[in-house]
Amino acid sequence: MEQYQYQHPWIIVRNVHGEWDVSHMFRRIEWSGDVDSVCRKLSLEMIVSATDPSLPYVYLPPAGGVKMGVGEQMLFFGQVVSKDKSTDSSTMSVTCYDRGFYLKRSKASRKYTGQTPEEITRQLCGTYGVGVGTLAQTGVPIRRKFSASAIYQIIIIGLINEVWS
């Protein structure tokens, strides 16, 4: 994240009532994940106070939307997974993950009878609302059953083993 170290990131939160720019309400922002991770994580330390009128109250529910970026570029889009606020602190810890989180945590049972890995990947990601970019065209038909397997395992581990075996 070196290229962004001197620019202030922006944070926008979304709930059923709308969207709010809350960039000024954070003491710490940590964005993590890499090419080997299933999902990206955004950890926030949000300044909150029930008694300070200069800090607006923003409802940030579990599964509420969070966007983070720098300048014109959006770097993260995900949902709130957990929040923690101690009674003796003026900050609240918020943990967010992008939609890859659903691929990691959701399980499925499927039987494939000739679909290619790229077709299977697009179908599974579409089911869970995960965008798919360009995929290598293997053309290798998969014939395999997956029982109560994590979606990520079906896509990465199961299919790669089939293609490369």
In short:
This protein has 165 residues and is an alpha+beta fold. The chain has helices spanning 100-105, 117-127, 151-164, and strands spanning 10-15, 18-21, 26-32, 41-47, 65-70, 73-85, 91-97, 107-115, 142-150.
Walk me through the topology.
Layout: E1 10-15, E2 18-21, E3 26-32, E4 41-47, E5 65-70, E6 73-85, E7 91-97, H1 100-105, E8 107-115, H2 117-127, E9 142-150, H3 151-164
Antiparallel strand pairs: 1-2, 1-5, 3-4, 4-7, 5-6, 6-7, 8-9
Description:
Helix 2 packs antiparallel against helix 3 (151-164). The protein has helices spanning 100-105, 117-127, 151-164; strands at residues 10-15, 18-21, 26-32, 41-47, 65-70, 73-85, 91-97, 107-115, 142-150. Strand 1 and strand 2 form a beta hairpin. Helices cover 19% and strands 41% of the residues. The model has no long low-confidence stretch (mean pLDDT 87). With 165 residues, it is of the alpha+beta class. A 7-stranded antiparallel sheet has the order 2-1-5-6-7-4-3, with no helix packed on it. A two-stranded antiparallel ribbon has the order 8-9. The protein contains 3 helices and 9 strands; from the N terminus they run E-E-E-E-E-E-E-H-E-H-E-H. It folds into 2 domains: 2-98, Baseplate protein-like domain - beta roll fold (Phage tail proteins - horseshoe like beta roll fold); 102-164.
